Amino acid sequence: MPGLSAATGGRILFGGDYNPEQWPEETWHEDVRLMKDAGVNSVTLGVFSWAKLEPHPGAREFGWLDTLMDLMRDSGIGVVLATPTSSPPPWMGRLHPDTLPVTEDGRTEWWGGRQHFSHSSATYRRYAAAITEDLAARYGGHPALTMWHINNEYCTFDHGDEAAAAFRRWLREKYGTLDALNTAWGTAFWSQGYDSWDGILPPRQPHYMKNPTQVLDFRRFTSDMLLECYVAERDIVRRHTPHIPVTTNFMPLWSGQDAWRWAEEEDVVSVDLYPDPRDPLGAQHGALVQDMTRSQARGPWMLMEQAAGPVNWRGVNHPKPRGLNRLWSLQAVARGADAVCYFQWRQSRQGAEKFHSGMVSHAGEEGRTFQEVKRLGADLARIGGHVTGSAIQAEVAVLHDWHAWWAGSQDGRPSSHVDHPDVLRAWHRALWEAHLTTDFAHPEHDLSAYRLVVVPQLYLLTDAAIDNLLAHVRGGGTLVCGFLTGIADEDDRVRPGGMDARLRELFGIRTLHEWWPLDAGETVACQSFTGSLWSEEIEAAEDAETIPYRGGELDGLPAVLRRGRAWYVSTLPEAEALRDLLAEIAAGAGVRPVLDGLPAGVEAVRRGDLLFLLNHGREPVTVEVPGSHRDLLSGSTPTDKVTLGRYGAAVLQP
């Protein structure tokens, strides 16, 4: 299947969502002039255009889109053409209420916003297939078409009757018999045993807590149903244009999709990324999402959406300070992006997102936002031919799995303060601040390419995943795991001993007596650091090396255990301590940082033969880089030292 390179042509794609139906036609020509001035070479059309394309059932109004496709062709700007199926027209919900999703407490989600569709509705799927078929037939041969974008940010849940019937079909296919389902769901508890498939519902609002495995399976089902919707539209456009790559845009760390499985069905993996410009860890959040997306893509990926300035959905929507948009965009390229795009091209004057920034803001072409966009476009043109298609080599893998997240985040657990994404961010931050380049991997993936495998937290692990971790250590690799890992099997059944016996043996844990979760703000002292969030009462094997707790109920018991090349951390060390611990473990595994002695706030990433230096601080810094290099951004040839200004960047070629 075609990949991202089929659309880039050796360039970094630069542009964004273009919604010209919001503007009079005379504005379109002005847009093209500004796009060419900014170096835009790609726009996404049609994401929210269903009511414009099909104003009433069965109608087709393509004339306006014909004009735009031809205008883009004549201007040398490629089109990522979207199917508009994320936002059905009002007439669909009015005429076909079965297409509307239902919440767990029985409320219908009405039209008037977006994503108001039931993934299980046969009526919705029929209309979605029809509009997709007609778009593909009409524009499949158009020379401006470079990529298909299916739907937008799949994120709907549905607890309605049609979804319930689909859920039952999904369960019958998975389990085969009611006995198998009752065993997997543990329905002997609370008298929940099912005697008929018809008695099974989605996990609607109960009197008290829900069955955890029922909820887990419903999460899996929802991801699969949304994926069915994507695949149905993808297959339609592929039939017409097998040479054109297909994508849909992930939301970072969105809990509703098993993105590992989804990525296997995409030609191009793309993501929407909106770090808060006021967040001191915004750059680290960006790096995490970029590393994860690159790993799902197994190579170059697409930044489908970011903001040129403020968004509109935070309580207070801060703009990006001067230079930050450029810096974060270059960070994405450093970590594997071959496309840097925005929502949206021109800031809207009406609608729910009129205060969400655009590449052309309300201030127009003289505004700071557009002037910075122009500078970025020039930068990307300078480096594109040197970087597109190149790889990033990582010797560290961070393991992440949506099923473990789903299972570990339900009610009735030892601590509601333990949040899977927060733990993941803390561990990735430690590696990022240690300047260790990381991939992400599924726990059942081949890990043989990595010297160090890091598991921040995987509450649920299959037997295959556990065998994979053991094999990694037996093969000479190093493993470090955080707390609450290997607790449950794939049915959310707690393993005997509170942790899989093979893992206890691996880490040197004789007995895991009790989990000791910590209250918000509570800490626990350890020999060389302070921990928070969690602690455990562990009895270590005689040959395990330990770092003990100091004081309190767990005094003298191990906070950290090591047996050979396997480490277990039973609390969340403070940020600097976790960074130092992982840096020490990495060094012992033979993993070196990208550069030594980097100033605080400076990020260094190697992509291919290029070294990206990114200053995330507001003050100028000097970075020592041995040897002579050419900075592709400035054209200068620095020797031994590179000076980076406020939010400055350099892309060094040896």
Summarize the structure in words.
Among the domains are: 396-588, Rossmann fold; 602-653, Sandwich (Immunoglobulin-like), CATH 2.60.40. The chain is 33% helix and 19% strand. It has a 9-stranded parallel sheet with strand order 5-4-3-2-1-9-8-7-6. α6 runs parallel beside α9 (212-240).
Radius of gyration: 26 Å
Strand fraction equals 15-25%
CATH homologous superfamily annotation of the domain at 396-588: Class I glutamine amidotransferase (GATase) domain
Annotation, overall tally of beta strands: 27
**Largest sheet: spatial strand order:** 5-4-3-2-1-9-8-7-6
Largest sheet: 9 strands, parallel
* Helical/strand content category: alpha/beta
CATH domain class of the domain at 396-588 = Alpha Beta
Mean pLDDT: 97
Q: What level of helicity do the residues show? A: 25-40%
**CATH topology annotation of the domain at 396-588:** Rossmann fold
Overall, the morphology is globular
Low-confidence stretches are: none
Give the second-level CATH assignment, the architecture of the domain at 396-588.
3-Layer(aba) Sandwich
End-to-end C-alpha gap: 34 Å
What is this entry, summarized?
The protein has 654 residues and is of the alpha/beta class. Helix content is 33%, strand content 19%. It is built from 18 helices and 27 strands.
Considering the chains and any ligands shown, give keywords for the structure.
654 residues; alpha/beta; Rossmann fold; Immunoglobulin-like; nine-stranded parallel beta sheet; 18 helices
